[in-house]
Amino acid sequence: MKIDVLFQGFPGTITRGYMSWSSIVYVESGGHKILFDTGGMSEHTQLPKVFKARGLSMDDIDMLVLSHFHHDHVMNYEYFPKARILLHEKEAAWVLSDPDDWPIPKYLFPVVEKTGRLELIAKDEEIAPGVTTLHSPGHTPGCMSLVARGADRPVTVLAGDAIKNLTELATGEVAMSHDNAVSAQTIRKIRDIAAIVIPGHDRTLKIEADEIVAVTALHEVITVPAGVVYPDKPAQFDLAIEPTRLKIR
Ligand SMILES: [Zn+2]
């Protein structure tokens, strides 16, 4: 089994609103090539480059697992013409109920449905050897995570926005959730089974006895064209967060 974080989420907000930089994770097991979440429009140009850099083919992806139907997780499905598209049944029902939930791109749902490749998951199931879906409600009613169990690795949960960042995993307190109490239950459930958590908008997290440890760093660069800041070269601004740790509450 292989798990590779193609894009690491970023937990920030900016003066303009939400940054919406989410995680996109590649999972390979038993001949299946799975992409967990497909990012937002801001990853549209980078996604093919990241695949190419890793020697992966987008045509080979046989499953897209959408953690939930928010705009920063469900775009770019058109790059993967052969993939089944898995979404939790409760998320589909939530989207179709026309909820007051601004991050849902409601126009997109019928388009994805029209591919004929959308499959709704009704209960947790093994989709590849050692890779099981986990209904993880709270952030939205139909959030779905993936649990990866292999002899060669600690139990790893790809959480999506069921757990957006280090703070949420450590405290059980969430922001921007449809139901905070249900989110807290889901986070406890994931904390009980996972050794590693890949959250929707942060670094890879390790659960230790009484602490959550972010084991990776975050580094993004904002580039401004030459002439705007410096007369003859582009300006680059670093956004970096080093590995940190936080006590579990
Ligand atoms: Zn998100």
What's this, in brief?
The chain has about 250 residues and is an alpha+beta fold. About 20% of the residues lie in helices and about 35% in strands.
Structure, explained:
It is a single chain. The model has no long low-confidence stretch (mean pLDDT 96). The protein starts with a strand and ends with a strand. The protein has one domain (2-210): Ribonuclease Z/Hydroxyacylglutathione hydrolase-like (Metallo-beta-lactamase, Chain A, 4-Layer Sandwich), CATH 3.60.15. The strands form four sheets. Strands 9-10-11-12-13-14-15-18 form an eight-stranded mixed beta sheet. The chain has six helices and 18 strands. The chain is of the alpha+beta class and 249 residues long. Zinc ion binds next to helix 2.
